[in-house]
Design brief:
This protein is an all-alpha fold and 152 residues long. The chain has six helices and no strands. The longest helix has 34 residues. It is elongated.
């Protein structure tokens, strides 16, 4: 269910980004009057899409990887190596989660120049996506799922 919510959110954000960016281009070149906020909003939407996309790719096993050598290893070694990689991902995402939360009060006092929103809004996606990725990896580890990549 979480992956469906994330996927739907990515679709909505991507649609908004396309509309906002297209409107910005139309206003700038068609009407000779720039929308001051379109570039900044487009940038923030792209950041959110990227972080949520990483969480979605983790769930689907769709991250880019070079597995030529990995595929040559015996299945048991592949399983343990996959678990080691998963633990390393949890540690890395755990640090992003912790430091992402720690940075929020510092960036909350800053305001985006054209949108006039607190910068904690664009930054909050870092710990949120890290938490989602950790959740997906933990589920994979605890259920013993061997699925690490998308079927081809």
């Amino acid at each position: 269910w979480l992956d469906r919510i994330v996927a739907f959110t990515v679709i909505v954000l991507f649609t908004c980004m396309v509309v906002v960016t297209s409107a910005g281009v139309f206003w700038r070149y068609g009407l000779n009057s720039a929308l001051s906020w379109s570039d900044e909003l487009g940038r923030f939407l792209l950041v959110w899409i990227s972080f949520l996309g990483a969480a979605l790719a983790t769930y689907r096993g769709a991250h880019i990887g070079i597995d030529v050598i990995f595929d040559m290893l015996p299945p048991r070694v592949q399983l343990w190596l996959g678990r080691i990689v998963d633990v390393m991902i949890i540690i890395f995402m755990g640090s992003i989660l912790v430091y992402g939360i720690k940075i929020l009060p510092a960036v909350h006092v800053r305001v985006a120049p054209t949108l006039s929103i607190h910068m904690s809004l664009p930054y909050i996606i870092m710990p949120v996506s890290a938490g989602i990725i950790i959740f997906h990896i933990l589920v994979r580890l605890l259920t013993g799922s061997k699925k690490r990549k998308v079927e081809q």
